[in-house]
Amino acid sequence: MAGWVIDALLAAFFGGLVAIFGKIGVKGIDSLTATMVRSLVMAGMMVLVALSARRLNFQGIEGKPLLFIILAGAAGAASWIFYFRALQTGPVSRIAPIDRLSVVVAIVLSMLLLGERPGPMGLLGAALVVAGTLVLVLAP
C-alpha cells in the first residue's frame, strides 16, 4: 500500500477521534476556549514532531508560499471554531458527515482555482459524498 494511502487512513482515523474527544471535551465549556486549547496542544505537538524529525526549517518560506500557508492556517482556525461550536450543541453523527463535505468543497475549488479536472469517477465520488451526507444527516 502506498505511503500516502496509509497517511490518509491515519488522518481519517485521528479525525474521527477529534469528533468524539471534542464532543466530550466541549461539554460545559465555551467552544472557543476548547478550540484555543486544542490549537495550543496541536502547535506544541507539531513543534515537538518537527524538532524530533529535524525538519523544522523556515528558510525559503516567504512571499506567495508564506501567504498561502497563513491563509491555510486561518481557514483551518475558522473550520475548528465552527466545528467545535457545532459539537457543543449537535450530534457527532450528523456534524461529522457535514464537516466531511469539505472533500466536495476542495474538489470544486481545485477545479476553479487550480485547474484540476477530476474524471467521471471523481465527480461520481463527489456526488456520492453529498448523497451519503444527506442520508446520514436527514435520517430519523
State the major sheet. Answer: none
The total tally of domains equals 2
Category by helix and strand content: mainly alpha
Number of helices: 6
Strand content: under 5%
- The N- to C-terminal Cα distance equals 38 Å
Strand element count: 0
Average pLDDT figure: 91
Task: Give the C-alpha Rg.
Answer: 17 Å
Shape: globular
Low-confidence stretches: none
Helix content: over 70%
H/E element string? HHHHHH
Quick recap of the structure?
The protein has 140 residues and is mostly helical. Helix content is 80%, strand content 0%.
Provide an overview of this structure.
The chain has 140 residues and is mostly helical. The chain has two domains: 3-90, no CATH class; 100-140, no CATH class. It contains six helices and no strands. It is globular.
Question: Which key terms come to mind for this protein?
Answer:
globular, mainly alpha, 2 domains
Which helices and strands, and how do they pair?
Blueprint (H helix, E strand, L loop, with lengths): L2 H23 L5 H22 L10 H27 L2 H8 L2 H13 L5 H19 L2
